[in-house]
Amino acid sequence: MRYVVFDDNRLGLVDGQEIVDVTDVLGVTAGGVRGPLQSALEADALPVTLADPRCSSAPRVPIGEVTLRAPLPRPGKVIGAPVNYFAHQEEMEWPTTIAQLGVFLKASTSVIGPTDQVLLPYSDVRTDQEGELAVVIGRRARDVRREHALDYVLGYSCLLDITVRSTEDRSTRKSFDTFTPIGPWVVGKDEVGDPGNLQLRCWVNDELRQDVCTSDLIFDVPLLISYASSVMTLEPGDVIATGTPAGVGPIVDGDRIVVDVERVGRLEVGVSADGACPYASRPGMHLAEGPATVS
Ligand code: MN
Fold first, then answer.
1. Cα(16) to centroid(ligand 1), Å
2. Distance 186 CA to ligand 1 centre (A)
3. β-strand partners of 60
4. Quick one: three-class SS letters along 196-249?
5. Mean pLDDT across the stretch 150-177?
6. What average pLDDT does the segment 99-128 reach?
7. Which of 8, 119, 145, 269 has the greatest number of beta carbons closer than 10 A?
8. How far does the centroid of ligand 1 lie from the alpha carbon of residue 55, in Å?
9. Prediction pTM value
10. Once rounded to an integer, what is the mean pLDDT over residues 182-207?
């Protein structure tokens, strides 16, 4: 099942070229900034399928006539996985993995949806695209064993972990507003099957930059959930960005970024430098010691 959030906080199921608007038949509340998919999860209303008798009386609308939103516009947590593909590890010349680095958090306010734009914060510091598979947690999870980890998954989505290449901690470099596009929907795990056998591709304009199978993940999805849940309680609607493969590169004003994950979907967003400022103009810059080095 593909769950979409569209227009003014409506929750839908995708059926071919139509969306079945299940907001009212499921009694889902709009959910404010966290959205109706989050409120459906918290009301234990998911999973639901088109075979559910309540769907037969739900209104339908052509998918081309709605505005798709981020399925989870304000997740409780966005957990990131550093250096989690073997080829990206070589590219970064970084001998460590999650085993040494742990996971990191991105601000939940960095999430945008399929019709939004990535805004570059600095006019003179490189910002990169990182195409990733996102895992959406469906049930509260704490200290979950690897072999049971997928029981706690609602489904999957496409995600971009946009990153400034500068010296700050990851949580800063990856938490600018608009730096976590998610969508265009969440696909239920049963429809996706093995998350360790999905082809992931990412284009910037017509250039194919990233092309990998998730079998190349260092911490695969179950191990990543197991590890993250050993640190923090995972809650329904939390998002785990599973890491990016080789091929990260700079994005500039006017670019179009596409991330496509097999059996999950295709997310496309634009890039704008509107409002970008010089790096040296950031608050507190006068306290910086020595020249900045780019990592
Ligand atoms: Mn990443």
1. 31
2. 19
3. 20
4. CCCEEEEEECCEEEEEEEHHHECCCHHHHHHHHHHHCCECCCCEEECCCCCCCE
5. 97
6. 96
7. 269
8. 37
9. 0.95
10. 97
